[in-house]
Design goal:
- This protein is an alpha/beta fold.
- It has one domain: Rossmann fold, CATH 3.40.50.150.
- It is built from 6 helices and 8 strands; from the N terminus they run ααβαβββαβααβββ.
- An 8-stranded mixed β-sheet has the order 3-2-1-4-5-8-6-7, with helices on both faces.
- β1, α3 and β2 form a beta-alpha-beta unit.
- It is globular.
């Protein structure tokens, strides 16, 4: 359970981004590697937090989920609506792209959340799901150094294989893996180019189809 208030948690989150700009930019580059092309695509980020990633990707709308990482709407640079990942406030087949950046680590019922994403995506739509691999060096850093009350304290980490199984069970197909954040957190001082696959980088991005 989080011991800090949402305002403190979000401040920690943004401070972390500012402290490690190359890490954030490397993550962004990896997601851009799989981001679908097209100006008319309807995109949604589930769990948009401060909206910095959504704004960088020009996401149409962010879903603010009650995970302890909420930010006042007026401080978010994209349009947002409140809601749960397990009960998305959208009709069937509305979105072309859904982004879940680190979202599964804070969702209580991941299978239900993925089923909801599948429902809301149009046929052939794209889910982009990114996360810290539990088998990675960065995951070990979080476990060893982040104190209770930090924005990572409540996170549940998954392996790439576990996420693949969850996506397959939800009906997603054509899974493509990319990875970044190679090496220790404090040694990442420049933007890293993403590589295909997983098992080397701490940050994994999966692009899949409905």
């Amino acid at each position: 359970m989080l011991t800090s208030s949402p305002d403190i948690i979000i401040e920690q989150y943004d401070r972390w981004i500012d402290q490690y700009p190359a890490v954030f930019q490397s993550k962004l580059l990896a997601i851009k590697e799989v981001w679908p092309r097209g100006e008319q695509l309807i995109s949604v980020e589930i769990g948009t937090v401060s909206g910095r990633l959504a704004a960088a990707l020009c996401v149409h709308e962010g879903l603010q989920t009650p995970t302890g990482l909420e930010t006042p709407a007026e401080q978010i640079p994209v349009a947002t609506i409140p809601g749960l990942a397990e009960d998305l406030p959208y009709e069937n087949e509305q979105a072309d792209v859904i982004l879940m950046n680190g979202c599964i680590s804070h969702v209580k019922d991941v299978p239900r959340a993925l089923n909801e994403a599948h429902r809301v995506l149009k046929p052939g739509g794209t889910l982009i799901l990114s996360f810290i691999d539990r088998n990675s060096e960065l995951a070990s850093h979080y476990e060893a150094h982040l104190s209770e009350g930090s924005f990572r304290a409540c996170a549940r980490l998954y392996t790439a294989e576990e996420v693949q199984t969850l996506l397959n069970q939800a009906g997603f197909q054509q899974l493509n893996f990319y990875q970044t954040l190679f090496g220790h957190l404090h040694t990442i001082t420049g933007v890293q180019q993403p590589r295909s696959g997983y098992g080397e980088g701490s940050f994994v991005v999966i692009k899949c189809r409905r």
